[in-house]
Amino acid sequence: MSLEKKRGFFKIGLEDEKLLNFKEIFGNENPVHLEIGSGRGEFISMKSLVLWNKNFLGLELKDKRIDDTLKKLNSEHHRNVRLIRLLVDEKITDWISENSIERIYINHPDPWPKKKHHKNRLIQNDFLDALYKILKFKGVIEINTDHRDYAEWIVEIFKARDDFKVMYENGFSRIPAEGHIVTHFEEKKRREGFEPLFMRFKKI
User: Are 202 and 165 in contact (CB under 8 A)?
Assistant: First the structure.
């Protein structure tokens, strides 16, 4: 299948003021898992094969990265995957219904390491308010980063809230969950000596 045909098969557009209908999009009522920032597509292309009975929606802003992801997908083995070009922020509730997502994955979000840039970090309370709305009860957010300061920032934000449970005793773990997918970026950072930290938070 050509890249152009893959765009037609896997990419879905957004209609103004219309929430996504997952039953129509995927043709079934299986639980939906959401990846925010699909990068080169290693995670969503492999995780969707392992969890073949889940539907996967990948959100990515850059067309180049969407095309990189499309190259890793085929219509026979990845019928449970769809992609949307979208800048993700607290307005995600404009497109995704409340209590509709079973699990959210955020792999290596930009740490914006300088203090003056912390306001640009993805993990902020307004954004978590939106993720709380779209998650089902007991739904889980999985986040990983190789940036220790950002991991501590993330954990502190979640700890200060009463609507999520921090699932690791110390906030994060160096041991990935079973079925972890190593992305290109994670492999690159490991070679540079940066080990990832894994976090999980449950909606309560």
Answer: yes
